[in-house]
Amino acid sequence: MSSPAKKRKRDDPGTSSQRTRSIASFFQGQASRQAEKTPEAPSEQTLSDEALARKLQAEWNQEDAASAAQTDGTSSTGPIATPLETGDNDREPTKVQRKGILSLQSSTGTEDTVSLAVPFDQNPTTFDIAKYVGELKGHWVAEGGDASYALLTRAFVLANATTSRIRIVDTLVNFLRVLIEGDPSSVLPAVWLATNSISPPYDESELGLGGSSISKALKKVYGLNSQGLKSLYDKHGDAGDVAFEAKKRQSFTLIKPKPLRIKGVYQSLKKIAMSKGSGSQEAKQRIVEKLLQDARGAEESRYIVRTLVQNLRIGAVKTTLLIALARAFLYSKPEGAEFSVHPQRDMARLKKEELAGIYSNAEEIVKASYARHPNYGDLVPCLLEVGVTEELLVRCGLQLHIPLRPMLGSITRDLSDMLTKLQGRDFSCEYKYDGQRAQVHCDVEGKVSVFSRHLENMTEKYPDVVSLVPEIRGEGVSSFILEGEVVAVDQETGELQTFQILTNRAKKNVDIGAIRVSVCLFAFDLMYLNGLPLLDRSLRERRELLRSLFVEIPNRFTWVKSLDATSADSEVVLDFFKSATDAKCEGIMVKVLDNVSRSDLEPNGTPAVDTTDTPEQPPRTGEKSESKNAKGSRRKALLSTYEPDKRLESWLKVKKDYSTSSETLDLIPVAGWHGQGRKAKWWSPILLAARNPETGSLEAVTKCMSGFTDKFYQANKDKYAEGTPNVISRPSYVEYYGEPDVWFEPQEVWEMAFADITLSPTYTAAIGLVSDERGLSLRFPRFLKVREDKSIDEATTSDYLAYLWRKQSERTKLDGDRPAETQLGWQEELSVEVG
Ligand code: ATP
């Protein structure tokens, strides 16, 4: 399994048709089968609890016997203990000599009341860590030693119960502290579970759970029939909530001598991911059932299922967890660790700003480490050993064959906006090619890895790029990490081809002899050379090394086309921009070349320290503004350095003007209405939503019926045909008050143009961010294209929408133009009709 982002991502253009399942599709089978439902033998629902328990026990015994016979090649002669009997979630069934092991108990009263009472959401400066660690350790010993899954569930429940990010962070901080001090070996599995992943993004592990596994398990374990399951799903719209309800209704359960442990659950997920080949679906199914059987209480069931469907919805995004880790290791360390921590009572005495300063320094270090080395499997053990120290960046920093998170560009309105922003700077304008970003790693042995923008391993996809390495690696280059854009290129003419052509390439096992889409790698950065990270060098220096040490091969490997300029060169820059768009590029990327502006040079020519406070935008696709720097952090003085995972103003994107507003949004189609007139056979308009990463919801932004071709409409109708898994019941996670005719399973991202962003009484996107009563919507929304390279987790966030609205308001004020707070009403309807 990977993070939800990884699971749903279609970073690879070649896999655009491969849709991953969403929560709703787990229940789809039931929906369609209802119609043809025949009278059944007494349904599980009609059995008494005891009869049901006996029936289940008999079935499990039978299955275990069959599976044991399959494994060891013998037929079973004696009873087989299910994990229920052995109390072990992870062990394979073993033969036992006992009989009559079935017993029942009320499902109430089985919950872990000790864990349920821990007030993780307190401020870490007042949280009584010693008391809770003492109590919990005693409790865990009685139950087998390791931290219980109930404790993690407790943290999830508290995080889910609030929209306050401070509280979510506090909850995670205190939870992590309890583990660091009480059971350090559970910290890593807890971090994987809290991030809804089991491996780093460049590792291929996927849960690969079939759509029916979870619904089957829910039916079996909680004694539901198909109709019961479907009506629960129709009511709740979230698989975890269905599990919660089902578990609550279950009045009796088989005795579970050993409760779920954090480690055990994580290991179960690993086992699910590792089950391959024939019989693997059954094996996975059994693990899912065991997890559900062993869940104590409805909340544990809810979070087990949310984990399995990879939609945890606790409002803790990646950055939140990194922040929580950083803060937790400021207060706590495992027994015997040698690094120093801050005594809680000292922290409690600090002024608010002082505490914020300490937190922010620690967070910078942990985030920087993760951006260079995005693997919790390495980060957490290092933290347990050295705490939050500069040593962390050395131990867990840039490493060959581990992709760093790429630096990102900020958007600009147009060329003049860009020129204003970079006044006084020397910058490089580069063609913004329309291909796939690639990070190429090569070690001294000549081993090559290629990673995508989203850190997926693409080495098998681009054997032709791999084969270029010995030729492009100039003399004196032993190891390197470089970055560029892979673009489909006509090998005869050198002409750039569209991104669409690149999508024809398969994702894996590409045979170098059978390649039909030839590509060229246009290199634009060098981050590591001969064992040394270059991130802190200026772009001018990195570029110089790249261009002088590597060797061009016509139409296969070259540098991005570029022009060095300053704000005074507007005409030349405009010509360059035009030449880029003429060459089928998306526009230009503009990058600051040096760490200081020329005006910052002291009279004697020595550079003064640049303390420019570079405002970071809320990321377009990712986390909240928590990535914003504390004032005076060391990073700000280094504008042209390579900043992994940062979206700074030292890289600016200037794209072709699509519409009145040069901004575009990446929205998720979530619902549709039956079209009228000529469009009666299609869905039109279509409802689009932005993401709220805090709540996990999708917030409706606009209806759109403009920019679609008839062919597109038809394809859309075929895709979201009623009766297919792509059309779902009203999902609880979409925020919209209206009643569309159909709800789409959220699965794709559309790039949308628009004229303005407006305050709206109808739409809920970004509500509370710019107005308490009104959300944000778009005037004259127009469909541009499907973003094949984006997953729904990378769609525009409501936060970003609010940011654009504020920017637009500022602009309007400056221009003395029409008020930006245009209210929606008839205008919105008009914009819907213009299509
Ligand atoms: P993000 O900035 O998050 O990647 P996005 O997916 O919307 O956002 P774009 O706005 O299309 O991406 O622009 C950024 C992408 O442009 C880069 O990730 C990279 O793949 C591509 N690109 C093309 N040419 C260049 C270049 N010269 N320098 C940097 N990136 C380039």
TrEMBL record:
Keywords per UniProt: ATP-binding, DNA damage, DNA recombination, DNA repair, DNA replication, Ligase, Nucleotide-binding
InterPro entries named among the record's database cross-references: ATP-dep_DNA_ligase, DNA_ligase_ATP-dep, DNA_ligase_ATP-dep_C, DNA_ligase_ATP-dep_cent, DNA_ligase_ATP-dep_CS, DNA_ligase_ATP-dep_N, DNA_ligase_N_sf, NA-bd_OB-fold
Domain of life: Eukaryota
GO BP: any one term: DNA biosynthetic process
GO MF entry, a single one: ATP binding
NCBIfam families reported for this sequence: dnl1
Name of this chain's protein: DNA ligase
Organism: Aspergillus heteromorphus CBS 117.55
